[in-house]
Design brief:
about 150 residues, alpha+beta, PH-domain like, 4-stranded antiparallel sheet, 3-stranded antiparallel sheet, 5 helices, elongated
């Protein structure tokens, strides 16, 4: 859990505690890895080198560009690598949570979590490509109703 905690320390209040830090699930990268291998095979290996470069670049970039923390009071999202955007949603303001998964995402146990808040017509926050999204929603609901 200490991985990435320094990123969030400057956004915490003095009485706030980070419970869990997570990012894009590893299975998200497996999905694109399998597609890349498939495309490399049907292109007789011509796409293998560019694919491997892009795979490792995105694996590094996305893991550091989408960091999420569940604290005892709210969800904090740090989005971006060069240009950072911070989104904070208090549990008490959350009206509903939705999970969106396609067939491959369900198979790999990844999905997007849409966080809706009171007074907003758009999704306040989207937690992208989260490993085991049902468990994360359950944890958020536990904090919300405790």
């Amino acid at each position: 859990m200490n991985k990435g905690i320094d990123e969030f320390k400057k956004f915490l209040t003095s009485k706030e505690k980070v419970i869990e830090i997570f990012s894009i699930g590893d299975n998200f990268f497996k999905l694109y890895f399998y597609w890349g291998v498939f495309l490399s095979i049907i292109s007789f290996g011509l796409l293998l080198l560019p694919f491997l470069f892009l795979y490792f670049y995105y694996r590094f970039y996305f893991k550091r560009s989408y960091l999420y923390a569940l604290t005892d009071k709210r969800i904090i999202a740090l989005i971006g690598f060069v240009n950072k955007k911070v989104i904070s949603v208090d549990y008490k303001n959350i009206t509903d949570l939705n999970i969106k998964q396609n067939l491959f995402e369900r198979w790999l146990k990844i999905g997007n979590i849409y966080v809706n808040t009171a007074g907003s017509t758009e999704k306040e926050l989207i937690l992208k490509n989260i490993q085991h999204p049902e468990e994360v929603v359950r944890k958020i609901n536990e904090f919300k109703y405790s």
